[in-house]
């Protein structure tokens, strides 16, 4: 997630530099054609370029709007992850029946659920980014849980299955009653739905043909604008065209990076930082003395 700080110039322009160089090359070619073959260049009215620019602006506005909707949905999903993670541990802590379990057993069960939920948050975020979550899970899971997760392809789903098994065992031991089991299962269902929503965003790509069409139309507009300005502005057409091109390509690239909020990029939803906040909250609920600090960043983004 980009932070509210001054963005470095290299980050803003490095992605559009190839496009800007191509536009500059096109502009220089038209300048040379005007100089050597001025009578053969077509006279294109500026109104045509204006109409094209207005149409492309509408397409870019739609593109940015849809891309931001995807990014914002990803952020809302992880807000639900935080809420349901806290809810699950609070429910287990309040539901466990003291007459069915000793204080030590109740503490072990609560700790197992809390640590497994912390592991679930980290594993979900890393899985969405295409990373291997297993190295992050070793410090949160018991050996049997770790071995079970290792054998599964979908590690976050495996951890939810372990949650479900433990809740069923607590119900069989009468450590939670039937109504409490239903409440815990409802929380697990919400966590599973949240995971599915995040996976849907990750697996559903923004239509590539739409992106290519917008990219082509930008070049068509800039070429038309260059032919329209080359007669009236002379050499000044080059910097003017580059300035306009920079604006259009920056907007297009901004939309492209917002389309995937789980791409391990600075524009991502900060799933690692959110998972760390969940870890802090749940360890405080366990009243543990050593609670990690929230993630901070010395750069312009937070992952």
Automatic annotation (TrEMBL):
InterPro entries in the record: YneE/VCCN1/2-like
Record Pfam families: Bestrophin_2
UniProt keyword annotations, A-Z: Cell membrane, Ion transport, Membrane, Transmembrane, Transmembrane helix, Transport
Compartment(s) of residence: Cell membrane
Annotated membrane topology: Multi-pass membrane protein
Lineage, opening ranks: Bacteria, Pseudomonadati, Bacteroidota, Cytophagia, Cytophagales
Protein name per the record: Bestrophin family ion channel
Chain ranges passing through the membrane: 20-37, 43-62, 210-227, 233-251
Signal peptide: none
Organism: Hymenobacter yonginensis
Family to which this protein belongs: Belongs to the anion channel-forming bestrophin (TC 1.A.46) family.
